[in-house]
Each structure stands twice: as C-alpha cells, then as structure tokens.
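Running co-folding for arginine.
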Amino acid sequence: MTTLWSGRFDGAPDATALEWGSSFGFDRRLFEDDVQGSRAWAQALRHAGVLGTEEAQALDAALAEILARGQADPAILAGEDEDVHSFVERLLVERLGDTGRRLHTGRSRNEQVSLDLRLYLRRRILELQKTLVSVVAALAEQATAAGDALMPAFTHFRPAQPVLVAHFFLAHAAALRRDAARLSAARDEADALPLGSGAIAGTSYAVDVQQLARDLGFSRIVANSIDASSDRDFAATFVYAAGLAMVHLSRLSEDLIILCGDEYRFFELSDALSTGSSMMPQKKNPDPLELVRGKSGRALGGLIGLLVTLKGLPSGYNKDLQEDKHAVFDAEDTLAGCLTVVRAVVAGLTLNRARARAAASGLLLATDVADYLVGRGVPFRRAHEIVGALVRKLVAEERDFSSLGMNEWRAASDLFGDDIVGRITPEASVLAKMTPQSTAPGAVSAALADLRQWIAASSALLPR
Ligand code: ARG
C-alpha cells in the first residue's frame, strides 16, 4: 500500500503498525465532508492561479463522481488507505493522474481533518437536535394528556409537595431545551474555517479564505494557524453538550424506572418497551431505560477521555488528535440512540391517575398547613413548630391531616378555622402557588404553551 508520504523513506512502513494506526475504518464517516472540502479547495486554487480552469473543472467533476459513487454504494469506502483523506486522493489520482496530484497544493491533512470534522458536526448536530425536539414533543404530549392530574414531587427522594403531573414532564423538557441550546452553541463553535492554516504556519498560495468560507458556509475564519491545527475545543464542546444531554436522559430514565415500579406505579410502561425475565414469570423490566442510564457513564467517559487526550499536547498537530473521532462519533451515536428510545418510552407511558393522586395527599400537605397559620398572622418559624408537633402525633397514630376533627385542629392552634379542611388538599396546594415557574395550574398551562411554541419554532429550523 502507498501512503501520501512514502517518498521520504527508503523502506516500506511496518504493515502492522500502519494498519493499526489507520483511521479509515472510522473516519470514513467524514467522506462526504472531505469531498465537499476538496471541491471548494480546488476552486480556491483556481482563483489563486494555481490550477487552470480545465484542471479545476476536471477535479470538480471527478470529486462529484467519487461522492456520488460513495453515496450510492458505501461499500466502496474501503481499502488499506491510511485515512479518508488518503482514500479520496487515491481515487482522484486513479481517475485524473497528475491533475489529481495537484489538489493537495498548499493544503495539509492537519487542517483538512479539522475542516471535515467541523463540516460533519455542523450537519450532524442538526439531526441530533431534531431527535431531541421529538423527545421534548413527547413530553409535551404527556403533559397535555395529564391535564389536572396530581402526583407528589420529591426532595431527598421523600414525598415533598403535590405537583401537577404535567409539571413533572415539563421539568424534564426544560432540561432538554437547555441541551438543544448547548448543541447549537457547539455548532457555532465548529463554524470557523480552518483552511489556509496549512500544516502549521499558513499557506504560501494566494487563497481567498473569505471566499472559501462563504463557499463552505462558514461564518468566520480561524484566528491562528498554529492554534487551528490542534484546536479540538469545538469537538470537546460537542461531546460535553452530548454528555450533559445524556445525564438528563439518565435522570429521566431513573425517575421513570422508579415511578413505573411496583412500589409507585404512577405510570405504566408500554409492553413494547419492557422486557421479561428468563426465570421469574411476573417480571416486567424497564431494560431500555436502564440501558440509557448505563450508557450515560460511557458518554461521560468519552468526554474525559477526549479532554485528557488534549491536555498534554504540544502546540501544533499531533497524531493523538486522531482519537477525537472516537469521542465525537461515539457521543453522537450514543445520544442519538438514547434519544430515540426515550422518545418511544415517554410516548408509550400510561398515567395511573388514582395512584398518583393518592400519593400526593397525606402528610406532604404539612407546608400548606403551616402556610394557613402564616395567613392568620403566625410567624412562619412558629407555624413550622406547631405543624411539626401535629405531624409527630399523626405519624405516631398512623393517621394524616384528613382524619383530624375540628377539636384536634383547635388543640394544635386556636387559629385553625372551619375552612382548614378545604384548604388541605393536593388540589388546593397547587392552586395556592403564585410564581410563573411553580406548579400552579395557570403557570403550568402557560409553560406548556411556551413549550409548544418552542417545539414549533425549533422544528421549522431543523432539517425535514
Ligand atoms: N487521520 C488523521 C487524524 O485523524 C488525519 C490527519 C493526519 N495528519 C498527519 N499529519 N498525519 O488526525
């Protein structure tokens, strides 16, 4: 096999080491980006007077043909080539001979691989965002279907206060919306043209990088050729954004694993997204959600792996950077797969209203009792003590507020009036909330309307 640099050496490279170090097995995913970049580079060389019009046209036609063949039959993306850049150049030289050999004038693979990865992320992040928006839409559907249904919210994983079930779904949607914004920021960071950087010092040909940036749809040029040859911040930003999205999917999964479990059963998982046990006939296991939770560990490992790879590098390109592809592709694949399965799980959930409502009443209304006393002029700290003592008594007697007679209320405080009974329900509790981010039914409807607008606006911007 020949490499792009064999002229420098007396003997053949060690075949095992060369094959081991080849990236073509995984960087073939950059094929269309590589061809796109090379077509633009051929035009830039023509404008710079390096290539004649005919040569540039021949290069463009051959690259277009190579692209079409590769897209029609991905199986042709094979061979002993060192990487996707070598592969495309080999095909070009096979077709055009010396004209093909002129394409790499003034260009280095160091900037080429950065360009390809930037182009790749620019298009692939949009696909991830599209799937992410579909998960948010499934959460919005569940929030809509839940209507005025109630459930407890938890702190320290102990029942804390009643909330609308819709509020729970919208909480997860809020985190995923931030992920969408973070992915957009990663896309913006990748949006800088590295071509013109050469191997490290820039290029000695009069390449119009501004025009090249316009041709390739970049909004700006990188600032410094040394920095550009080893800058993978945009890749790390992407892997971080994907990793944090995985953290959110993992937490949603954990919530659903618990709340669909036998102890809570607020929701029922669809059979299609559950699995059975080979031995215990009664089991209905949430395997897909557990896998999402498990894969979040891998996603975060990939982020740390990439950051550590970058940490010790001297300025300029180093082959260590080839590892960036593993981190980026694995983050993308992991997130894409998990988004798809979480969307299906969320869409398939059935709410068990009665069970969720029952779990939202009882002693978790204690704050509302304290707030009642505050409304009668008692300082909150004092009200907390009074209600705390009442809770202690009810816990000991295994009762809750609904079983208290008026005489018992009055024994706790003579400020309790007959209206206390109607005030201490989960419905009254959520209605009493006053802030826009709260679980008050009006606030939740407004949040849901805002979310629907966001879904519509996002969908309009993303690929069909
Ligand atoms: N496969 C290489 C990578 O992924 C491409 C760049 C090679 N550049 C070089 N000077 N060897 O980083």
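Result summary
The longest helix spans residues 109-146.
Residues 23, 27, 83, 109-110, 113, 317, 319, 321-322, 325 surround arginine (CB under 6 Å).
Job closed.
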